[in-house]
Amino acid sequence: MGSFDSIPHAELMQCLARRIVDGAMLHLLKMWLEAPVEEIDERGNRHRTTRNKDEGRGTPQGAPISPLLSNLYMRRFVLGWKTLGHEARLKARIVNYADDFVICCRGTADEAMTAMRTMMAALKLTVNETKTHVREIPAETFDFLGYTFGLHWAHRTKRKVLCGRPSKKRVARVCEKISAITDRRRSGLEPAEVITELNRVLRGWAGYFCLGPVGDAYRAINAHTRYRLRKWWGAKHKNARFGPCWYWSPWLERTFGLLQLRWDPSRLPHAKA
Fold first, then answer.
1. Cβ distance 74 to 14 under 8 Å?
2. Which of 10, 108, 215, 258 is the most exposed place for a label (fewest CB within 10 A)?
């Protein structure tokens, strides 16, 4: 969805007024919604825009309160889905976080899509057509909140399970962060500084992506981290030679304190495909 850009201010303020009685706080929230936003154009020039205030819709992109406000307004959609009887009639349940949601149903996808579009129009929200699809599970997969849901092979159970695993885009994104931290232009930093930054990224990523068969993703990230750390070390020490230990994560962990992502098999679903 594109609710961050399309949430109507008047209706959102009504939702807030039902929960907040402090007029000063409501005024502050309204000012936050209408605050100018600084944007960078294609030429790299910075300019300020008052689009949200002029159009009376949208929440500031990147603001920490935007997901909360989006969740609050999307509650109208979730409750309306049940109140209007769509959940019971279509046997369709909604799973959402902020402006991302999935409608889970059996054989009623077209009816659910039509009902969803009708409700979104009534709520004055814009549906992101590039992200809106109908997927048949388990024949197909879909991405939601960074996970790819579908049938995935689990090495430990030697069978396919219907679950979620980290999406390829999220694995590629964290690898890009690791590459940026270990860029050769940062070879002047001390190893402890680089390792601390790497561990912070790895720990945060694994703290979220820890469900389902994550072993392949962890191995790919560990391998990329080792490779990039060797490249960084080679840039820092021009005549460095790398023995087999540099390809061994436990040695790097003991020697430098580098975090190694480890898979917890207790978090793997046991449903048979």
1. no
2. 10
Alpha carbon distance 144, 3 (integer Å):
16
Element (H, E) at 183: none
Tokens for 202? 């790895």
Query: CA–CA separation, 95 vs 81, rounded Å?
Result: 12
CB 9 within 8 A of CB 33: yes
Confidence of residue 84 (pLDDT cuts 50, 70, 90): very high
Tokens of 92: 């369709």
Exposed, middle or buried: residue 69 (CB in 10 Å: 0-12, 13-18, 19+)? Answer: buried
Count the helix, strand and coil residues of the chain and give each as a percent rounded to the nearest 5: 50, 15, 35
**Ordered DSSP codes for 191-225:** HHHHHHHHHHHHHHHHHHS-SSS-HHHHHHHHHHH
Whole-angstrom distance, CA of residue 30 vs CA of residue 9 = 8
Indicate the helix (H) or strand (E) that contains 149: strand 147-154
- Token pair of 147, please? 């996970």
Which letter does DSSP use for residue 20 in this model?
A: -
Q: Under a CB-based contact definition with an 8 Å cutoff, are residues 100 and 1 in contact?
A: yes
3-state secondary structure of 268: coil
The span from the CA of 70 to the CA of 58, in Å, is 10
Per-residue pLDDT of 114-136, as tens digits, reads 999 999 999 988 888 888 889 99
The pTM of the whole model exceeds 0.90? no
Residue 256 pLDDT? 87
CA-derived radius of gyration, the chain: 24
Question: Which 8-state DSSP code applies to residue 62?
Answer: T
Q: Could you list the beta-strand ranges (E) of 4-60.
A: 37-40, 46-49
- Dig out the tokens for 4 from the structure: 């961050």
Closest CA to 11 of 30, 25, 28: 30
